[in-house]
Amino acid sequence: MGAIEWVTESDEYVCELPKETQDAAKEELREDKNTRDQALEQMRNWIKMNPRIENSRLDARFLLRFLRTKKFNVPMAQEATERYLLLRHVYHPAFQKLDITDTPMEELLSLGYLFAVPGRDAKGRRVIVARPGVFDPYKYTNADMCKIHGITYETLMEDELNQVHGFVHFADGAGVSFPHMTLFTPREAVRIVKNGERTIPMRHKEVHAINTHSSLKFALDFGMSLISEKIKKRVKIYTSLEDAIEQKMDTSMLPKEYGGTMPMKEMIDLWRKELLEARPMLLNHDKMKVHLHLYSEKAREGAISALKQGFGCSDVNSGDSTIHGISGSFRKLEVD
């Protein structure tokens, strides 16, 4: 058997970040050349020696996603990397074949369901706009919803400026109704949110939501109960755009329809170009794999506690209260 051909090989990292970004990385993430070089070497050696990882990217830009999110705590970055690779494999309908040219993806993009606006705010962050009300729950599946999020986030995570400065989220709840709530079972929702926050290496700095209808209060409260206290403190909910503006939410980066200057369609067209550039990389990610048989059943099912326990083959004790069981739970995601 010959040497493994990795999805991407190890490379010599050359820092080309602007000075203000380097300063922010040093202050917020404890990142400097020495720390970074040592951490990258440790990450690569660990991946190569990890019998559970079949294939992965080894380039610095990919590994820095995890190191920066975990503030260069190498063991935590390693756990996050393995969790990511495992969940890519397990939740393959959501993570694989991330092709923006597929008809449902192109339609959701054109509707403005989810997109990143051009440019950066005063703190260097990209702003992500979500409009869940335009998602037709009778036309599209929960797999489509997961996939468009995967395409969006994977594209954004590749940019080192985003890895350091993080993201601002803006959501418009107008048009969201009960059928949207039934796209995922409560069990699916728990697993997606819990795994997503721990696994997708993104720094969520602010979350703003408008038009959150009182009839959906239960769903909103349930969603808020799933996220960490750290993220919860960064969430601001407004009754309307006017309410948000009154409370001094910055609308300058948003589409013209929400108080900014550039029309939403123009923003979406610019974002589409970014997604098309990223398409080959995203499709290449399908080569990343783990040896599923080396994980416990609960780890394969996406149980948070199982993943926390060092990815061992032994089952988590039966007294564990974490919700388990991906079989059946993600039935609708088992697409061709």
Automatic annotation (TrEMBL):
Name of this protein: CRAL-TRIO domain-containing protein
GO CC terms: membrane
GO molecular function annotations of the record: phosphatidylinositol bisphosphate binding
InterPro entries on file: CRAL-TRIO_dom, CRAL-TRIO_dom_sf, CRAL/TRIO_N_dom, CRAL/TRIO_N_dom_sf
Domain CRAL-TRIO per the UniProt entry, residue ranges: 105-266
